[in-house]
Amino acid sequence: MTRRLTLSVFRHNPRDPASVPRQDRFVLGETAGMTLFIALNRVRDEQDPSLNFDFVCRAGVCGSCAMVINGRPGLACRTQTKDLPDEIHLYPLPNFELIGDLSVNTGKWMRGMSERLEAWTHLAGEPEHDRLETPMEPELAEAIYELDRCIECGCCVAACGTARMREDFVGAVGMNKLARFRLDPRDMRSDAAFYQVVGDDSGVFGCMALLGCHDVCPKALPLQTQIAYLRRVMARTGIL
Amino acid sequence: MKIIYSDVLVIGGGLAGLRTAIATKRRGLDTLILSLVPAKRSHSVAAQGGMQASLANAAKGRGDNEDVHFEDTVRGSDWGCDQLVARMFAHMAPKAARELAAWGVPWNRVRAGAHEAVINGERVSLDERAEAHGLITARDFGGTKKWRTCYTSDGTGHAMLYTVSDRAIAESIPVHERREALALIHDGHRCHGAVVRDLVSGELTAYLARATVVATGGYGRIWGVSTNALINEGMGAALALETGVARLGNMEAVQFHPTAIVPAGILVTEGCRGDGGLLRDTDGYRFMPDYEPEKKELASRDVVSRRMAEHMRKGKGVKSPYGEHLWLDITVLGAAHIDKNLREVKDICHYFLGIDPAKDTIPVRPTQHYSMGGVRTDHRGESPWLGGLFSCGEAACWDLHGFNRLGGNSVAETVVSGMLIGEYVADFCQSDAGDLTVSTALAREFLAREVAHLRAIAAGRGNEDGVAIRRRMEAIMTDSVGLFRNGPHLEATVGELAELLVRSQRLAMRGHRLDANPELVAAYRLPRMLKIALTVAMGALARTESRGAHAREDFPARNDRDWLKRTLVRWPEGEGAPALDYEPLDITGMELPPGVRGYGAKNIVDHPDSACRQGEVDEARAAIADRHKLQAALMPFRQLLPERYRGRNERLDEPLGARSEARQ
Ligand SMILES: Cc1cc2nc3c(=O)[nH]c(=O)nc-3n(C[C@H](O)[C@H](O)[C@H](O)COP(=O)(O)OP(=O)(O)OC[C@H]3O[C@@H](n4cnc5c(N)ncnc54)[C@H](O)[C@@H]3O)c2cc1C
């Protein structure tokens, strides 16, 4: 009755000159409610303790465990095996530095992107801690949170055609961040300042509008509209 | 030998570590952060429901202030907390929430006018005043007299961590990710930094610093099922313990959250009940009002969790292949509310249970959630036994939470403690005491020791199975150091943990690589986890009373007479077991002398000083009308704060007026 699953897992240690990229196959019995988090940990506990992968929150919020699951980038921790065929192919996210097996260095990539785009609120000054906070329209706070929900998992970058060709492309994650800060009245930057960091081929004008990013985003962020909007605004800013 | 120098070494890139680093960097100190994972993947990101700060903007928050927050916190702690720290915290929380508001957290805001809410299972209409429009709103949480919990939907931790982490990037604070501190470098009196392993290359480096800050989060993962992230393995507490000098405080104080989903153990926020959700049993019956007529589902977490267990013991649990559970019912809140304010809960239900919480009830049961205990420090965050070692956030026990933490007080604590301890660390570094005096010989000695240790483990000449030992530890911690505890079980557990510790030092290894190798990581962490487990179990065995989350079936009374004291634990070098001692709490200086909490069982053995102090407090209350003057008369605390944070907090009903007034 229980299915036997075969996990075909990419293996490679880039620091080991003798390591040749390969697929290892692990067979295990499916259990009720099994996720890829449970399956991979069983493999590590019972079959191969050297298998590298990253899980932290195991609840779909920290963005650590993105990988390519049967050809599609997604969060492994919340992927149920019952939604997958008997044979499951797992690869590390492309476009990121490989640490080993299914583990990639998304953190380094994200920090680099944040630094280049200056992806933080550019403050007018320091807050007065003792005073009432500046009011904000409730709808605006909600709209900012909508874009703030990105978890930097890297799925959008893995699914991006431009990122494959341009190492410095900021990806949907970067453009969404700028859209978020642009919407936020606490960020003092003008459109011209945003144009400085995103108005070229490593930014909005590098996007080929294939929109793989939009399809794979685990948080269902409105990437398509945000990128299109940012591009229109930046094109206008560039002309002026 | 590779050495990296900085003024301040912060171990931990969660909310507490990041906020500390921002403070020290702003004081001109060269600051560096270490983290096991990219900072934004730290466990802080998972906080859902919100942050407590007495802003008093929302209609149901009116009349709130530091005094009310302070009292809720002390009652919540079952009088186990340090009241001075609780006062400093309640005073700072509004400043922290407002700082975050300015830095970019999209706090949900008050909308003026009438709106519907669910209170006690019924729809009611609330009216928000016009002046509050656009200010930060709040929701109800357990154990609080006012609606005080500020939130961003149910992604509060995410919104806070991203804002604070972005701030750290903006201020060019380096985060050395995927690096693990393995040992603190110290000379028995002073801490000088840490030996750090690169989790990718395996390389070891000595990080030397004037001040070292342990902000490594909690130790929930020594239990089999926990709401915590997988990296919450108590390694920071273990680092401090292994110095042989620094002490941990109240390790037996561990919180079990009422509502983690079954079987995955993933949390659904207290905000579910705060917003009006109900607990139901196998008959669909709402049972909490029978046990807690006053606070019902919104008593403190230790109390609600115990009531749930009690009810299941009466046969009212829902049987399932994964053991018994109860139901959390948020269908009453309606789809629109859930889609907006409980969207993570909706996602979790969808992905991990295959249900829609707007239509279906959620299977829940009490699950390990929070570590009140940790590295014992003074109110400045420094270890009294090892100079230059600081700690804050969930890793620390400066003792805000005593024996039970209130929901929403932890993320508030992380930023508040970062703001404060960052200043104290900077003061230390800029004083004579903070000079960097370490010899490279000492660094070399510590480094060599860790290299040899890792080589020996990787060689793996033993015959023990690390996975089996870990599973056993998790199981016995769950069975006998859980929601309810008793002497015989604890005694057996202490014995078995000690045996497991010995065995964990003789592991067989399948692979022997020293670079990115999860088997090696598990192998060197396991003995440290067992040491932490032992401090918890021994503390629980020795404490023959019930206080907050520590519930002894064989000693059901809260015994203020004999146990109004903090457990301290140290692991003397070369010894096979930790040593306990105690630090009394001084009732004669308390602003809120021990009394009844207002929820939970009333079973107290009084301390002789309590009545006398209560008399003094009552007298002062009768004599002094102004709440600030009264507070200052009872337990002055402002002088302990960095000068910049001493000012009063403004509220709509407590305007500050001219600038000078704010400074008093
Ligand atoms: C599911 C969930 C929901 C919660 N919701 C709320 C809520 O709504 N409100 C609330 O107030 N509280 C909540 N809490 C509690 C709160 O989130 C945590 O207590 C708090 O975020 C801890 O923050 P921290 O900075 O102390 O530690 P963490 O965020 O845990 O960070 C620890 C850091 O230390 C690093 N680290 C650890 N060990 C080492 C080492 N040896 N070397 C180097 N780095 C190391 C880690 O990489 C990490 O960066 C919740 C907790 C859980 C489990």
Describe the model.
The complex is a heterodimer of chains A (240) and B (664). Chain A is of the alpha+beta class and 240 residues long. Chain A folds into two domains: 4-104, Beta-grasp domain (Ubiquitin-like (UB roll), Roll); 118-236, Fumarate Reductase Iron-sulfur Protein, Chain B, domain 2 (Orthogonal Bundle), CATH 1.10.1060. Chain A has helices at residues 36-46, 106-117, 138-148, 155-158, 161-165, 171-183, 191-198, 212-216, 223-239, and strands spanning 4-11, 22-29, 66-69, 72-75, 87-91, 98-100, 103-104. The longest helix of chain A is centred in the C-terminal third of the chain and has 17 residues, at 223-239. Chain A is elongated and about 60 Å long. With 664 residues, chain B is of the alpha/beta class. Chain B has 18 helices and 22 strands. In chain B, helix 2 packs across helix 3 (83-103), helix 5 (235-241) packs across helix 15 and helix 13 runs antiparallel to helix 14. The longest helix of chain B has 25 residues, at 518-542. Chain B is globular, with a radius of gyration of 24 Å. Classes of the chains: A alpha+beta (240), B alpha/beta (664). At the A-B interface, helix 1, helix 2 and helix 3 of A face helix 3, helix 4, helix 10 and helix 15 of B. The structure holds flavin-adenine dinucleotide. Flavin-adenine dinucleotide binds at residues 11-17, 34-37, 39, 42-44, 46-51, 156-157, 180-181, 215-217, 227-228, 231-232, 235-236, 267, 269, 369-370, 393-395, 407-412, 414 of chain B. The site of flavin-adenine dinucleotide has 48 residues of chain B, from helix 1, strand 2, helix 4, strand 8 and helix 5.
